[in-house]
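TA notes. Do not distribute before section.
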Amino acid sequence: MPLHIDTLRTARLDLLPLRVEHAGEMAAVLADPELHTFTGGAPDTPESLRSRYERLVAGSPDPAVLWCNWVLRLREAAEDGGYGSDGGDGGPLVGTVQATVTAGTAEVAWVVGTRRQGRGFAGEAARALVARLGEEPGVRTVVAHVHPGHRASAAVAAAAGLTPTGIVHEGEVRWQRVVRA
C-alpha cells in the first residue's frame, strides 16, 4: 500500500511532508488552547510535539496502516505577523493536514492555527489532500470525523467534497467521499 508522500501545491500553500524539524515552529502555530475546544486535550510543548513528530515520521508500526502527514507553509509571507520560519523557502507554517490510510479508507484531518483561520487555508489544503488521495488506486473512500458544533470544520469537509453520513462516532459526525467504487 505504498503512497508517495510528496509536496503538494495549492494557490497559496505548499503542503510539505512532515519533518521532525517542523516541531518548533508548529508548537507555536498550535499553541492556542482554543484549537482543542472540539477535540479535547491541550497544546503540545515543543518537546512533546517533537517526540510526536518523531513517531509520525517513523511511520505506523502496523504495515497495513499508512500515516501521511503534511505541514502547510504559506507560500508568500505577505502580512506575516506570523510564527517565524524554520529556514525553509516561503512564509510561515500555518497548520497541518493528515491522512491515515487503512484497507481502502483514508481518514483525514486538518488544523490551522487560530491566527490564520478564516482565510480558507484549511479548505484549500483539504481539497488538495483529498484530490491527491483520489489518485491512489488503493484509496476508495475518504472519511473525516467532525464535531457537530464545529461549523468551520464542517465547511472544510464540504469544500473537500465530503458529505455528512448521519453516522455519529464518539460524538463526531462521519463525513465521507467515495473516490473510487
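Switch to the second chain here.
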Amino acid sequence: MASLTKYVSNDRPEFAVYIEDDDTVCYAYLWEEKKIVGDIWLYNSAPTPSEPEWHQKENILFLNPVEFVNENLEPFNAWSPVEVTWDFGEETVANIFLSERLIAKLTVGSRPGWSSLVTKDGPLALKL
C-alpha cells in the first residue's frame, strides 16, 4: 500500500521531510516552504534490478540497481521507528533514522542526499 509521511521541524516549521513509498520505490524529500530542495532514494519496494533504469525517463521514480545497493530495507509502515532530526547550523540538515540508526541525510540543495544503505555514490544517493 502506497504511503506518504510528513516530518515537520518544530523549530523551523517551513522545513519538512516527506517520505514516499509508491509500492515500487521509496524516496525522501526535503521541503522548504512549498518547494522540494533535496531528495534521496531510501529503498526499493520492488525487486532490485540488475541494470539501472535512469536512462528510461518513463520509469521515474527510479529503482536503485544492485550495483549501488548495500542494504535494502523492508518497506516502512505505520509502526516503523522512523525519526527525523534537524540541525540548523551553517546549513540546514535533516537526518533520517530508522531504529536509532542514521540511514540518510539531506541538506538544502542535496540532489541526491547521502545514504548509509549504498555501496558507492550514484545518481540516486551518495555514500554516507
